[in-house]
Amino acid sequence: MNSTRNVLNIILILCVCLSWGCTDGAQKRENGEILTHTIELSSLFPSSSSPCVLSTRASNTKSSLHVTHRHGTCSSLTSDKATTSPDHAEILRLDQARVNSIQSKLSKKLTDRVRQSKSTALPAKDGSIFGSGNYVVSVGIGTPKRDQSLIFDTGSDLTWIQCEPCVQTCYSQKAPIFNPSSSSSYYNVSCSSAACSSLSSATGNSGSCSASTCVYGIQYGDQSFSVGFLAKEKFTLTSSNVFDGVYFGCGENNQGLFTGVAGLLGLGRDKLSFPSQTATTYNKIFSYCLPSSSSYTGHLTFGTAGISRSVKFTPISTITEGTSFYGLDIVAITVGGQKLAIAPAVFSTPGALIDSGTVITRLPPKAYAALKDAFKAKMSQYPSASGVSILDTCFDLSGLKTVTIPKVAFSFSGGAVVELGSTGVLYAFKMSQVCLAFAGNSDDTNAAIFGNVQQQTLEVVYDGAGGRVGFAPNGCS
Ligand SMILES: *[C@@H]1O[C@H](CO)[C@@H](O)[C@H](O)[C@H]1NC(C)=O
């Protein structure tokens, strides 16, 4: 008996060893599950001359918009030759500004709650967040409709665009600035309206009044702002998805890092957000896929159209209650099939959220340390390189054609296990500096943030009515 088992064990070990020694360096478990990704290094550096590949999902779904990266081949904002390659150091600096702003909003909310339970002090007002949200869709506004390129943001609520006349400053944008006087479906909103009152929760500032017209002002964590009239307009997503009377900000004084785009599409959870305003049609459900590079488009789809059956859902966590954010509960991280030893409280104490505008995923310090150690151990065949900005685990891949990296998966409460796409793990500066695209928070009490590099190629479903967020692989194609 025993000896038979031993022989079987030896055969099993041999099989495992043989499969681990696979030709392309891929590692497998005995059940055949592949534990690594092998990536062509050239795919990490999209060339500005590669043609734009359109998402068929976006092309074939009626309530779907193409999502493009702000810079690159697919963006109508980038003029053909003068492709401004984004400055990575600047992107990461702004990313940290956004993260600081999200985390201070959340911790302020927690201290407010404590304070409110003790006295009748009003909650502190805080600005919205903005940073380097880099994904853009085009939405028709007005009659006749004019296409507006908008950064979409799950971390804020008010949708706004630049409007004529610019009374102080308008930043430069690619398409002409919207002129409300040439649209027959534009209406000002009165100061006494409920929409005007809801500005305070949507923007952190209550609306004010000018000749009985409601005036909004929103400032972002990075000193950007937009000020103008709260208005109602016709929004045309596609020819069959048209909404009359959508509240938005017609900004006559706008400043900040929005260069090129016309404004912002607010996809947060507040009453004034676009999903809330279109709730009778879409039930606060939308999904998106962020493309793997600037040479591909992804999609932003409203309603349940096209949502894959393989989506796995996790409840929106209570940590973000009363904010615009969609909260998540991370319960585990797996690297190359190995579950990291991280105590549950490391995740549950600060909580987590998903954000379309944060670039690099932030983890509690102890979770990041465990991830980094496991990743480094499985990448030991590659020489290390110095860190850049917030990224400290980098490799020198000069002269190589491919790199084999361990797969990384996140487990969320409710049993949703999400394996990151092959482009969701690394952030490439240059061949000699390709880094693990995660960073640790500076404090154990700061919330984790599931960022947009990690979301690339996943189908991400936001179900505001059902109180859940879901994930499925290969969402862009
Ligand atoms: C909206 O209100 C502003 C400020 O009172 C005014 O200048 C503008 O003409 C109004 N537009 C419409 C269409 O009523």
From TrEMBL:
Keyword hit for Translocase: no
Gene behind the chain: BnaC02g00130D
Active site: residue positions: 153, 355
Family: Belongs to the peptidase A1 family.
Transmembrane feature ranges: none
Molecular functions per Gene Ontology: aspartic-type endopeptidase activity
Protein name: (rape) hypothetical protein
Organism encoding this protein: Brassica napus
Domain Peptidase A1 positions: 135-472
The keyword NAD is annotated on this UniProt entry: no
Secretion signal span: 1-25
Annotated GO biological process: proteolysis
Entries under CDD domains matching the protein: cnd41_like
Key words of the record: Aspartyl protease, Disulfide bond, Hydrolase, Protease, Signal
